[in-house]
Write a structure and sequence with these properties.
Elements: H1 2-17, H2 23-30, H3 36-42, H4 45-55, H5 58-76, H6 87-96, H7 100-110, H8 117-123, H9 131-153, H10 162-176, H11 182-210
Helix pairs in contact: 1-5, 5-8, 6-7, 9-10, 9-11, 10-11
């Protein structure tokens, strides 16, 4: 209930500030001075629930409730990559033939980007939006998480430099901050693609130099 209330509060506040309130909602707000921000902070939970049902569409409320449940489920998956008991990491270590605990620590570090996904559940159209909106958020978020994982690991296609790390940080922010216009997302994607391309070209150059020269 607490997570659902936090998610729905921003939507309810936006609906109240947009105006065109039903008479019963306007009368309720007048009891708290008429300011929606102050009213939502001071009114009892039961009264807030009634206003929420009055102001927000049923399908939007259902989407926010689903988001709240998915946030709990998603955060529970952190146990799979958190030592000393991280079953997914230990299974990967067995397949790769590596030591379990170092593998678990590495996976724990790289997987910290998963904490951003619940924010997308709560404050983006990833769950409650239309299919085009969901696909758009999904694509940008995948690229943003890749950039963030490279930053946390300090390695993308090759070891990154401080300048590349700064560029990856900017790229991840532009890709995953969903309220930004699409051209900012495109700029973040261009930064990421540029870094990957330069590292790939550098890897090819290093490989060519390292190969023995044939007569």
């Amino acid at each position: 209930p607490l997570i659902f209330d936090l998610i729905s509060q921003s939507q309810l506040l936006a609906a109240l500030q947009a105006g065109d309130l039903p008479s019963n909602v306007a009368a309720t707000l007048s009891l708290f001075g008429g300011d929606p921000v102050v009213a939502l902070q001071e009114m009892p939970m039961e009264m807030k629930q009634l206003i929420r049902q009055e102001m927000l569409p049923a399908e939007l409320l259902t989407g926010m409730l689903l988001s709240a449940h998915l946030i709990i489920f998603w955060l529970s998956q952190d146990s799979n990559v958190t030592p000393p008991v991280c079953l997914a990491s230990f299974a990967a270590a067995g397949i790769a033939g590596t030591k379990p605990i170092p593998t678990g620590l590495t996976s724990w570090k790289v997987a910290k980007g998963l904490y951003l996904v619940p924010i997308l559940f709560a404050y983006s159209p990833l769950i409650s939006g239309t299919w085009p909106e969901r696909i758009e958020v999904f694509l940008w978020a995948c690229m943003g998480l890749y950039a963030l994982a490279g930053l946390l690991q300090w390695h993308l296609e090759a070891r990154i430099t401080p300048a590349a790390a700064l560029a990856l940080l900017v790229s991840a922010f532009l890709l995953m901050w969903t309220p930004l216009p699409i051209y900012y997302h495109a700029l973040g994607a261009a930064l990421l693609v540029g870094i990957v391309f330069l590292q790939h070209q550098n890897n090819q150059l290093v490989t060519a130099v390292a190969e023995p020269q044939t007569a």
